[in-house]
Amino acid sequence: MALQHSIVVTCGKGIHDILKKEVADLGFNIEKVNPYSVEIKGDFRDCMYLNLHLRTANKVLLLIKRFQAPHPDHLYQVISKIPWEDYVHINGYICVTSYIQNRHIIDTRFGNQRVKDAIVDRMFNQHGKRPDSGPKRDQTVVYLYWVNSDCHLYFDTSGETISKHGYRRIPFKAPLRESLAAAIIKSTRWKPGVPLINPMAGSGTLAIEAAMIACNLAPGLGRENFGFMHLKSYQKEAWLALRDEAKKQVTNGATTDFFINDSSLEALRAAKKNATWAGVVPVIDFHHGDFTQVKMPKEQGIVILNPEYGARLGQVEQLSNTYNKVGDFFKEKCAGHWGYIFSGNPDLSKQIGLRTSRKMPFFNGKIECRLLEYELYQGSKKND
Ligand SMILES: C[S@@+](CC[C@H](N)C(=O)[O-])C[C@H]1O[C@@H](n2cnc3c(N)ncnc32)[C@H](O)[C@@H]1O
């Protein structure tokens, strides 16, 4: 069996429990859960597998070394003793990123530079040559987590974040990050086989993420480049085998209905293009019109809306009327369904005027949001 290392999978604020379940469902034992990450044990192949399959994660970090360093000079000394030539290509390119809370470091760029210097100086001393370095994350990425004296040094095997799933070539306005959309979908009662209606779909992220889950489409299948590909341990055949295995598991999702609607033709065009890139167009119906005119295709299902909430777009007063109409739409047209609103504005959400059965906290960047769940039945009760 390959050597087991600590692997830390990071995520956005507030979704660590959803990530924990996702990682466990992929067959890993969870060692620890932190506010922004989960920890497991695994090997290089596991890192590739996680990068290929995870929907709610930001990055997959493979521990190189854990050590104590009170000062940047200690940091440099320890890091320059690591045999980088065993891991990193001498003609490669290195980027260092970090999270640092150390009293000697005011600007994290200084910490990053010390790490980079330690690596390239070591390689130059050993081989008379050194890799290039800079801010691009498209090759070897080293990540330093340094709090007080406690240092964790990792390879960021994702490189560029895996919170983007590669299909969104046209974002339209205020799109949700794909990993957040996947986390929202996983928090609803939707599961493959249940119809999903997305009446204010924008660029379609929520419906596309659900459709990808229904079709068992691994988000990493659409991506050509990951950080792990630039390390010496990378074996292309092993990666291609994982991809082939994932491709064989793709289904046509035919047992599920997905319904995307938006009043903007531009949004609809973006959603169609994005669904095409994601490979889920055949399972989605696209409609143009006001959400109030949407007819539920089945008697039961999930209706999920992410209206604007005034933080980035439009004015709060104008939106108040829209939220009120969402309440009417839920009551009059969606009986038999579970309704969901994802919004960052609690005052606007109150305009819906229906009793929530669950309120789930999320963060969209720095904005605190809620996913509100409504059980919709004939004559859903008003509750102010
Ligand atoms: C915040 S965006 C949704 C973003 C989406 N979740 C994404 O990830 O791309 C809200 C969308 O609602 C649409 N919209 C606003 N008012 C509408 C209405 N009355 N009927 C249908 N769509 C509407 C807008 O055109 C916009 O695309």
Observed structural traits:
15 strands; 384 residues; 8-stranded mixed sheet; alpha/beta; binds S-adenosylmethionine; 24% strand; elongated; Rossmann fold; 7-stranded mixed sheet; 2 domains; VC0802-like
Describe this structure in words.
Helix 2 runs parallel beside helix 7. The protein is of the alpha/beta class and 384 residues long. It has two domains: 5-156, 2-Layer Sandwich (VC0802-like); 178-216 and 251-375, Vaccinia Virus protein VP39 (Rossmann fold, 3-Layer(aba) Sandwich), CATH 3.40.50.150. It has helices spanning 16-25, 44-53, 72-79, 108-127, 178-187, 205-214, 236-248, 265-278, 316-333, 346-350; strands spanning 5-10, 32-34, 37-42, 59-68, 93-101, 132-133, 140-147, 150-156, 196-198, 258-262, 284-288, 301-305, 337-343, 358-364, 367-375. The chain is elongated. The chain binds S-adenosylmethionine (SAM).
Furnish the topology, listing elements before pairings.
Blueprint: E1 5-10, H1 16-25, E2 32-34, E3 37-42, H2 44-53, E4 59-68, H3 72-79, E5 93-101, H4 108-127, E6 132-133, E7 140-147, E8 150-156, H5 178-187, E9 196-198, H6 205-214, H7 236-248, E10 258-262, H8 265-278, E11 284-288, E12 301-305, H9 316-333, E13 337-343, H10 346-350, E14 358-364, E15 367-375
Bound molecules: S-adenosylmethionine.
S-adenosylmethionine is lined by residues 172-176, 200, 202-203, 205-206, 262-264, 267, 290-291, 306-308, 322.
